[in-house]
Specification:
- Helix content is 24%, strand content 30%.
- With 169 residues, the protein is α+β, with helices and mostly antiparallel strands.
- The protein folds into 2 domains: 3-41; 50-162, Rieske [2Fe-2S] iron-sulphur domain (Rieske Iron-sulfur Protein, 3-layer Sandwich).
- The structure holds FE2/S2 (inorganic) cluster.
Length: 169
């Protein structure tokens, strides 16, 4: 038998096709494994669902007034009406977390000084929630801010809050 008869043409093509399929299978397997490993290392940012939480109406919320509410996760939010600009009612309000971004103590509004103050380590924030002195300013950590929406047709005021975590996150 000659070498050509040892490896008939059909067998060689079948063998080549098997190698190609095996290579593709291995590449797909390793590719998927690498993708899962990458997703484990760098989890994709998932938008947490949010919803509107009613906090009052324009006519019951005069300029200078503040109101404190808790979001569905228990986080306390202080809402202050800072202007009466009719051009953009949602900008009439400022909604800030009362949790200090340093170590989590509760910050308090000091109306006389137009600022928020954290009593734990004398963290001071301006009325926009920007850290101006103390450990939060050194760490460049402002108060967490929430979006406020106002329905022009009804004057209803809402703060946007994150939905309660579903899986204990
Ligand atoms: S916890 Fe607020 S300044 Fe430290």
């Amino acid at each position: 038998m000659t070498p050509a008869q040892d490896k008939p043409e059909g067998t060689t093509r079948r063998g080549f096709a098997s190698w190609v399929l095996m290579f593709l299978g291995i590449a797909a397997g390793y590719g998927l494994g690498a993708l899962h490993f990458f997703k484990y290392l760098v989890p994709l940012r998932q938008e947490r669902p949010s919803r509107e939480m009613f906090i009052g109406t324009l006519d019951t919320f005069p300029v200078g007034a503040t109101r404190t509410v808790r979001d569905p996760r228990g986080q306390e939010i202080m809402i202050a009406r800072i202007t009466d600009d009719a051009a953009d009612r949602s900008r009439n309000f400022r909604a800030l977390s009362t949790k200090c971004p340093h170590l989590g103590c509760k910050v308090h509004w000091e109306a006389g000084q137009d600022r928020f103050r954290c009593p734990c380590h004398e963290g001071i924030f301006d009325k926009q929630g920007r850290a101006v002195s103390g450990p939060p300013a050194q760490e460049n950590k402002d108060l967490l801010e929430f979006e406020v929406r106002v329905r022009p047709e009804t004057g209803a005021v809402y703060v946007m809050v994150a939905e309660e975590a579903r899986y204990g996150a």
